[in-house]
Amino acid sequence: TRTPVNVTVTGAAGQIGYALLFRIASGHLLGADVPVKLRLLEITPALGAAQGTAMELDDCAFPLLRGIEITDDPNVAFDGANVALLVGARPRTKGMERGDLLEANGGIFKPQGKAINDHAADDIKVLVVGNPANTNALIAQAAAPDVPAERFTAMTRLDHNRAISQLAAKTGAAVSDIKRLTIWGNHSATQYPDIFHAEIAGKNAAEVVGDEAWLADTFIPTVAKRGAAIIEARGASSAASAANAAIDHVHTWVNGTAEGDWTSMGIPSDGSYGVPEGLISSFPVTTKNGTYEIVQGLDINEFSRPRIDASVQELAEERDAVRALGLI
Ligand code: NAI
């Protein structure tokens, strides 16, 4: 029998946590034959709610779930962690300046990064979901100098999945026929969903669409502003789809991309495609045996270049802001 994998989830009592934990426990995160132990990190006032969710997890009698521990101490939550999903974050409230938002999140992600550094397992893989995800990942990474930098990733898989779905709806293709789509840059309104290298049933997606105005005026803004559209319609932010994307991100990282396809992940740049080294930016990546590589050699056309650059510029500004605050 396999040793259980320790999975730590922060913000476990939140909306995404509620949609996420049951799928982790039922085997969708790592594989249907991988037992898991859950560690739930919450702030003290939310421990009771986390306890309630844990009771429901018990009541599912999941065969793969080998234990649940609930704590408000990051040092306990990340002890021996193999996978960490950092979901809990400080949302922007009315009238809050960007500096205040970054500072509040620094107060969360810096101590969590340090606890990961000091207590996590050697093979720790970190996914940051809590916004601003890319910059929160940078803060946690900077606080964990003993962990290989590439283990800190940020989630753009929801954007990737949204883009595939929009493209399928436009062209009438099946979702499963769409490959090699890329989200570049920041998980924010500046992100750039790129279909110029994507394929629909083996044909170039941009040629199948054949409509640059639709790309510029409909597709890109629809994908980039989808989060706001969900809030408008649902009265609450995306939760099940975000949890699903977190599952997809880690599952792909651990189990590999399909031959001939790739995915999008926010990862520390090695300088590829003109993205300054060290920024946690979304790239096209292939994964294999728990490691990932940036897809190299893609031709970036005149339509794409300024859009990638604008999102990367925003990431650089966020990095400079957290640096000025002493968070990295
Ligand atoms: P939520 O507000 O329902 O839950 C957040 C939970 O985090 C709360 O239970 C809160 O008590 C907890 N928390 C706050 N500080 C914490 C700390 N220091 N340690 C542990 N837990 C802490 O929010 P929801 O809807 O679950 O979203 C969570 C985050 O995910 C938000 O930042 C949201 O913006 C982000 N998000 C990111 C997406 C992406 O594509 N990257 C997509 C959707 C949401």
Q: Ranges with pLDDT <50 over ≥5 residues?
A: none
Distance, first to last CA: 41 Å
**What ligand species are in this complex?**
1,4-dihydronicotinamide adenine dinucleotide
Largest sheet: 6 strands, parallel
Q: TL;DR?
A:
By secondary structure, the chain is of the alpha/beta class. It contains 11 helices and 14 strands.
What does this structure look like?
The protein is globular and about 50 Å long. It has 328 residues and is an alpha/beta fold. The chain has helices at residues 15-25, 47-59, 74-77, 98-119, 133-142, 157-171, 205-209, 212-224, 226-234, 240-255, 304-324; strands at residues 5-10, 36-41, 65-71, 83-86, 125-128, 152-154, 178-179, 182-184, 192-194, 199-200, 203-204, 263-268, 280-288, 291-294. A six-stranded parallel sheet has the order 3-2-1-4-5-6. A three-stranded antiparallel sheet has the order 7-10-11. Strands 12-13-14 form a three-stranded antiparallel sheet. Helices cover 42% and strands 19% of the residues. The relative contact order is 0.13. The structure holds 1,4-dihydronicotinamide adenine dinucleotide (NAI). 1,4-dihydronicotinamide adenine dinucleotide binds at residues 10-11, 13-17, 41-43, 46, 87-89, 91, 108, 129-131, 133, 155, 158, 187, 237-239, 242. The site of 1,4-dihydronicotinamide adenine dinucleotide has 27 residues, from helix 1.
